[in-house]
Specification:
Blueprint: H1 22-25, H2 28-62, H3 68-83, H4 86-93, H5 95-114, H6 119-142, H7 144-147, H8 153-181, H9 184-205, H10 221-236, H11 244-266, H12 283-297, H13 303-311, H14 315-322, H15 324-336, H16 341-364, H17 372-401, H18 407-438, H19 443-469
Helix pairs in contact: 2-3, 2-6, 2-8, 2-9, 3-6, 3-10, 3-18, 4-5, 5-6, 5-9, 6-18, 8-14, 8-15, 8-17, 10-11, 10-18, 12-16, 12-17, 12-18, 12-19, 13-14, 15-17, 16-17, 16-19, 17-18, 18-19
Length: 474
Amino acid sequence: MTNGNTPEDAIPEVGGEDIGRWSELFSGRHAATVSILAGGVALYAMNLYFTAALMPSIVEDIGGERYYAWVATGFLMAAVIASMLVSRVLGSWGAAAAYLTGFSVFALGAAINASSPTMEILVAGRVVQGFGGGLLAGLGYAVIRTALPQRLWARAAGLVSAMWGVGTLVGPASGGVFAELGAWRWAYVVLLAVALVLAGLTRWALPRGGGSASDRTPIPVVPLVLLTLAATAFSLSSTVSPGAPTAITLAVGVALIGAFLVVERKCSVSVLPKLTYAQGNSLKWVYLTVAALCAGVMTENFIPLFGQKLGGLSPLVAGLLGAALSVGWVVAQVFSVSLTASAARRAIRVAPLMLTGGLIAYGLLQSDNASGILMIGWALVLFLAGTGIGLAFPHLSVAAMSSTDDPAEGAKAAAALNTTQLIAYAVTSAIAGTLIRLGDDSLVDSARLMTIGITVLTALGVATAVMATRARTR
């Protein structure tokens, strides 16, 4: 642990010898606590892919195809904004009230979605749902520090971050089932019910009462506006005419990201913890490595499409193929949390290599009228890519959570993990849509362009992982 004053000491040793047992994490009151933490993240993560599987049925029923992309964009950007409020809500209201708020807002959004008569109302519902989900996803990391003993942090972080993999496994498959049944509204009714059940568990399991401190730090409005505009520009790049308009919108998006980073560094309040921008501090490299790994996850939004069009799979089976990366993520993470400090550092360094290699192989294996054997190859290399994510994620999470002895700053660093994920998802998803369109009429070319294009982002994680785990100087 660090005193929070020395930048070189910002990131502690990842991994560790004093790790509690799984049986302790799932016993007594700890079991209910981690169920809430993991359930909130799973509920949010599933929605990243759940609605994507339902969208063709939704458009057929209520129209509004021109708002297709905004259903995802509205959800993600609302979640980013909500993640800015996690430490404030947690510090002012305490864990129980914060979670009840998150589940209640999420349930309200699901209710709006289930009853939407038009696509415009659905988009509004997704914004509400994204706001509640953003709170839940951020709280999943931030509450670990205060609700559980330190020896269980690594396993709890592993479980919570594994819910992203579980969500991406369950989301496409369950969404595909509801789509095939023609019951997309009932899909949101189920989400509403799950949110209410978890809210009830929260009232019983988490202690009530206010937080230990009220965070009165102003919301970083200017950085958030720049970030929202950047995501909008990237999203527009997939809707404007090919050629110069696409290049201009992409350039504007990159410029806005650059402006966001400049403003972040200079503003008195920022989206990410100020420790991120301190000279000699490794926290920024942790966040960049997380972003690189999360960029690879966004391929799952399109793998079901390629499975159906290039392999002739049914929507349900194609959804399961899309979950191959998540299966690798979850399986690897179960074993990764028990690694020692030195092994954890090696795992973080090798993770982006495995992810990038797996995605490159998947892109190169794309083919029209793909055979069953070839599609098995797709599943295997996607599993390899997901394994890379699972090896590193829990240790990157613990590194961020342990970056300071100050509980308030530790909560901010933990919540910023979720913010980093959401930013990476929003930007990469928009870029992926543009890359697919550049394939023109060839879906094989679109699949290859999208996958190989994303590996440019994941490959950057090879360098950032080294920086995140390098030996500290005194």
